[in-house]
């Protein structure tokens, strides 16, 4: 892979001056007090060159379309049936089989090393970037700065502050990552939330969980499929994936079931510590076999043919560490099963 060496600060500072002078009407962050505090912090704690950061912040811009996108994610605006149709559909299944065939050795090695099924790794990459076809077109610095300093207003002010703090930290990790990998930070593209590469890792996850799975001395989830595959598997293991255990099952419901335990957030589910046995007692019976002692959560979703009840087990909630939405996790699982069934017929 050809790498863009960060190397000559003078070069991209000069480019920054040229762009800044030609786009003076654009809204940049160079004069924002909170951005200046961030720059000062990066200089003091991480020994960045202040002039270089100042030039970068003259170039990056607030992007209103990113703010708009954050306000209407598909997980919140679509029913489960509508959401499922985006990802669990024939073309994405077909492309998943092709991706598996093209990366058979890497996927087999990842499954052997980490215990994460190949089909789950393929499905994550399929949902996140359509197998690398859409890794994001936003300049990562624009995305992270917009969300760090202009996160859309929320009724819950403390939530807004937490999200701003989160994206400020991600901007810090991103600049550290660019320096570590000797890349021009202004050249890197990703999602509107600042996620990057085949598996759409946030910068902190890239630095913490990405792995050099091909052993070339460089962790590259931007272009290196083997590294991306190993990194997704490593992410799952680091968040508690248990090899060989089930993920999710449909659930039968009894008359008078306890609806207070439906669709609990990850934090509330963890606090409740409900087991499969507990959920059975509350009127929910797993269709597939599940050990009574396993921790579990139960969900009610609006499918294409009406209400659907599902019981998510440990590995299901590991998938939600990638994206907190239960619709997302269920789409990943169902796509993985469709891909595995189709792939097995090609052997």
Structure description:
The chain is 54% helix and 8% strand. The protein is an alpha+beta fold. Among the domains are: 113 residues, Helicase, Ruva Protein, domain 3; 97 residues, Lysozyme (Orthogonal Bundle), CATH 1.10.530. The strands form two sheets. It has a four-stranded antiparallel β-sheet. The protein has a two-stranded antiparallel sheet with strand order 1-2. Helix 1 packs parallel to helix 3 and helix 7 packs across helix 17. The chain starts with 8 loop residues before the first helix and ends with a helix. The N terminus is likely disordered.
Keywords:
about 350 residues; Helicase, Ruva Protein, domain 3; four-stranded antiparallel sheet; 17 helices; 6 strands; about 55% helix; globular; disordered N terminus
